[in-house]
Amino acid sequence: MLTIDCKDVISVKNDLLVYVADQVAAIPTLKNNQFTLSSLDDDEILDTTKVISAIKEYLDSIDEGRNFAVISNNDVINITSISGRVIEKTETESQSGLFSCTHCGYVTQYQVELNVHMRIHYL
Ligand SMILES: [Zn+2]
Question: I need a surface site. Which of 84, 98, 99, 108 has the fewest CB within 10 A?
Answer without folding.
Answer: 84
